[in-house]
Design a protein that fits this description.
By secondary structure, the protein is of the alpha/beta class. The chain contains 11 helices and 8 strands. Helix 1 crosses helix 9 and helix 7 runs parallel beside helix 11. It is globular and about 50 Å long. It binds zinc ion (ZN).
Length: 375
Amino acid sequence: MKAAYIHSERFLSYRFGKEHPFNPLRLELARSLMTDMGLLFPQEIILPRPASERLLRTVHSPQYVNIVKRLGQGEKMDASLFGLGTEDNPVFPDMHRAGSLVVGATIRACAAVARGLVLHAVNLAGGLHHAHRACASGFCIYNDISVGIRLLRRHYRMRVAYVDLDAHHGDGVQWEFYDDPDVLTLSIHENGRYLFPGSGGIHELGEGPGLGFSVNVPVEPFTDDESWIWCFDSVVPRVLSSFRPDIIVLQFGCDAHYLDPLSHLSLTSTAFIHAARSIHQLSHRLCAGRLVVLGGGGYDVFSVVPRIWTLLWAELSDRIPTPDTPPDWRARWRGISPLPLPVRLRDENTPKCQVPVFEVNRLTVARLLDSLHWL
Ligand SMILES: [Zn+2]
């Protein structure tokens, strides 16, 4: 088997509430679209187990894990110092268990690839890149990515290249490995002046022995396919080739899409297909195909997320999707979708950027590459 897909119906328990933008139903929409299109088969699906507390503590403080547990069991306390019980991260029942399952799924994906059982493994419930050591942030309780990378470092002694394409900066992972020269973090995101969490400037380059191995490409609001692909192509292949990773971990949030309600970027399926293909090829060229792919942001759960993640899976599993989504799939979800479900798998409208961002982004990339002396 070449690629594995980690999935559990219990991912649906990671849910902050009805009105909250993070809706785990997107995982069912995506998986059912892949299945209905004949792109995903039962033998490719691996069930995850919740991560142990011992594993969680390789990244999170014991006190924080304890607070998450107690809140999820209904204990009342003010946990805003830990980022919990806030508007972004409200408390929900059994949140420790739900968060541990997401981490366990990423651990499963990392271990399957590191041990050579599969070349690529995908956990779209993962990619919770904002969680910190002792603080929830941006809908992320436990940082499955950091725990996964920690395992790859300690247990498998691998050099890890982490690439984060979410519209938001991958801050939690960056700070966790900020001084580690064996973990490269590379994030392309909307400039922090305009979007949460605010960090991710080009001068955040790492510290101590890790100096130079934190790479940030903040792009301007309204950046479209053309400029984003140019930034991606100017930085990602060059940085990854020079770093020579043993494995690539990719966060494939799709909230940079032009229809996404939470960011101001203007990408279409063209940019996402380009990025998936490029990283897929780089993994084969640089590290024998070892590639772990995680989800992340994506808040248009009916029109955008299922399509973009299906295109991602098609790329990784070397399958060519038909142009249209199946009528059965559209019928299945019609009852709960506010708009008719999309007929075309790829975007047909390509918003052209009306703001002159290309020059600004070009300058950002030039300044960044100038400060990466190890290239
Ligand atoms: Zn995001």
